[in-house]
Specification:
The chain is α+β, with helices and mostly antiparallel strands. The protein has helices at residues 15-46, 52-64, 76-94, 215-218, 220-232, 238-272, 283-286, 293-299, 301-315, 361-376; strands spanning 2-12, 116-121, 128-130, 133-136, 140-146, 153-163, 166-176, 185-192, 196-201, 207-211, 273-279, 318-322, 349-351, 358-360. Helix 6 (238-272) packs across helix 9. It comes from Deinococcus antarcticus.
Length: 399
């Protein structure tokens, strides 16, 4: 099945190419802010806002004006993408977001910041891939390092300045991704936590504990020292720039380590199991607990679930989510007794008052999640589960 897949490579531009990338980022930011201001002013005067078509036409005229003729020197697709981003920001503001039920705030003016990016579209072979290099509009051939298995039809490329003198390109391609063959195991229950990142069980009494690496917390001392050094530097000075780059480099390393850990774990789960049962987590709400906010954010549960879902869709697996209100930790998986005392997170092991079975909190939750996920997937006869087709994606996989 054709899927959109992004390949990230690091760019090594020369001095001229780096200057053009920075100029393109500035022009894209200028176009976004300029037309946001015009749309606000037009609405104040006429009571009607500018449409995307009107801003696109105005951009063409803006490039011909003497004071802004420099806009024509950069990649035109990057400027058009800024207009699309502005239009999408307005659309998100005027409609209710389905997932959260909340409205997105009014579009804000962009500031020069770390992590800026621009996107360019593939048209008439203006983007090409070579051995250790990539050809981009207005830049020419740029040296790269990273993904070597890029394939498929190129759709667009996003160029990002991660921090000073560090650039990345995300190449979005349309790739044919076949379903994986039948997995060696059928269903797994996954309980995520802070002490252990994930506890996985197949329901046969075997549990796999994946330790929480705590990438952010383990680097906290270095981050504090780098932040303190930055705060002592004079803003705008050369030493301030060096300290800011050093801090950004530490943050980037934390992100890379977390992504690497989550990618390896999610890939192994998708290869090992046909059905993966998880909780329907709401990390944003959970971070309201000030005592656990740092640990929850450091774990990256939201990214873990996101990767599980898209990899399952790619490779013909099924992620079955259970209700966030299901008492997976409090319910005895043997007799179904609900013990409200287990709400206390300090209780790591407990004995069921009804049947006398002793439970490990996380392992018991994983078993309950697995059973409830199978029910949510429409599987009630677990003895014959291998012979049931629970999803069109699993039609050729379920044994």
């Amino acid at each position: 099945m054709l899927r959109n897949k992004a390949f990230v490579v690091r760019l090594y531009p020369n001095a001229v190419q780096a200057e053009r990338i920075n100029r393109t980022l500035g022009c894209a930011r200028f176009v976004y802010n300029h037309f946001l201001a015009r749309r606000i002013e037009t609405y104040r005067q006429d009571g009607k806002g500018m449409s995307y078509a009107a801003t696109d036409k105005a951009l063409t005229l803006l490039k011909r004006e003497e004071g802004t003729a420099w806009l024509a020197e950069v990649d035109k697709f990057a400027l058009q993408q800024s207009l699309r981003d502005l239009e999408r920001a307005y659309q998100n503001f005027f409609r209710t977001v389905k997932k959260s039920g909340k409205k997105v705030g009014f579009p804000k003016f962009k500031k020069k910041r770390t992590g800026e990016a621009y996107r360019t579209q593939f048209t008439n072979n203006n983007i090409e891939l070579g051995e250790g290099r990539i050809k981009l509009p207005k830049l020419g051939w740029v040296k790269t390092r990273g993904q070597r298995d890029m394939q498929g039809k190129i759709l667009n490329v996003t160029v990002r300045r991660v921090y000073e003198d560090y650039y990345e390109a995300s190449v979005l391609c349309e790739v044919e991704i076949p379903y994986l063959p039948a997995a060696p195991r059928f269903a797994a229950g996954v309980d995520v936590g802070i002490k252990d990142f994930a506890i996985v069980t197949d329901g046969d009494g075997e549990f796999t504990h994946h330790a929480n690496p705590k990438h952010y917390r383990s680097t906290l001392r270095r981050l504090r020292k780098a932040q303190q050094t930055l705060s002592r530097r004079k803003k705008g000075s050369a030493r301030y720039g060096k300290a800011k780059t050093k801090l950004a480099r530490i943050h980037k390393r934390i992100v890379n380590k977390r992504q690497d850990f989550i990618h390896k774990l999610t890939t192994s789960l998708v290869r090992e199991y046909e059905i993966i049962g998880t909780e329907h987590l709401k990390p944003d709400n959970m971070r309201k607990n000030r005592r656990l906010a740092l640990s929850i954010g450091d774990a990256g549960w939201g990214e873990f679930i996101r990767q599980l879902e898209y990899k399952a869709a790619w490779y013909g697996r099924l992620v079955s989510k259970i209700s966030p209100y299901f008492p997976s930790s409090q319910m005895c998986h043997d007799c179904g007794f609900k013990n409200p005392a287990v709400k206390n997170l300090a209780v790591r092991t407990w004995t069921c008052p009804n049947c006398g079975e002793t439970h490990d909190r996380d392992e018991n939750a994983a078993l309950n999640i697995r059973r409830e996920a199978l029910v949510a997937a429409g599987i009630t006869d677990t003895q014959n589960a291998r012979r049931e087709c629970v999803s069109p994606a699993l039609a050729g996989n379920v044994r």
